[in-house]
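Hi support team,

I'm filing this because I wasn't sure whether my run with zinc ion finished correctly. The job status page said complete, but I'd like someone to confirm that the output block is well-formed before I use it downstream. Pasting the exact inputs I used:
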Amino acid sequence: MYVLAFESSCDETACAVLEMSEDTREIKSNIIASQVDIHALYGGVVPEIASRAHIEAISKITYEALSVAGLTLKDIGAIAVTNGPGLIGALLVAVNFAKSLAFANNIPLVPVDHIKGHVAANYLTHKELKPPFLALVVSGGHTSFFDVKSYTCLEEIASTRDDAAGECFDKIGRVMGLPYPGGHAMDLLSSKGNKDAIQFPSPAISGDTLDFSFSGLKTAVINYINTKRQKGEELNEADIAASFTKTVVNAVRSKIGEALKRTGYKKIVLAGGVSANSHLRQGITEECKKYGAEFYAPHLSLCGDNAAMIGAQGYYEFLEGVRGDEALNAYPS
Ligand code: KG4
Ligand code: ZN
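And here is everything the job wrote out:
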């Protein structure tokens, strides 16, 4: 069956068409209208501007997604849409657009959780991947372990108690004057630095927990930069990026063994925007070898926000009978 999917939870307006069946997971089109250039002027996402930009883009990219797929609405078996979490005004754009299309054309509407969508990006990358497994979602808003019991049942077993890892990459990148959003630039810069140059506090909460706390690490790195600047000392930005990244990667690595033990799985799936980070992928690969666990990560083109991942998750929600009605709303968190 063909699934038409929408995503507008933050700063990407996205529409995709997927062909899904028991043994098919194929992306027919995957269009993203990015607002990064607009928000770069402000150094972060401006919610009101994001909503307006989604409204301007959504009809156009829907035509484009259908036309690249070579299909019309008559061919579509379900419409999937992210209805949370995210920026409420941004989410409502795709939710209402999808609702109108679905009810005007008598097509089933399927609401999809954005985080489940990130995990589902892996189903499109690894055609053989099936739950159950342990998932680690690292994005601009999340740093969490999930017990993925089935395609539709995900139980959060640990999370960050304050900031998310992606948020730290972006804030530190901003303080260092890197292009917005900072994650990708920090990744490249880290490769040029000495990861052992500076000791920063670990965001892994010690003791009998798999939780993280990134706010202390973020503050420590920003204080380090500000102190150096105040003293007029030279900043080695590559060393800062490398040392910060190593601290994040080691914190995540330190929790993997226990997370695998608690769930009893030998399979870990990485997801979310920060899953594009080359050092994180490398670190988890090494850690998984220690435990004889299989490691999966999405194709780089599916790490950030996109609608293909929403379509993949939407298909499995559809099979479970999940439907959105006329009262479908968006939820911010
Ligand atoms: O999942 P995502 O696209 O949006 C949310 O749902 O939050 O994640 C965006 C986050 C941003 O913080 C961005 O800087 C980060 O993912 N990111 C990266 C990399 N590419 C994107 N962080 C570290 N290394 C990267 N290569
Ligand atoms: Zn996301």
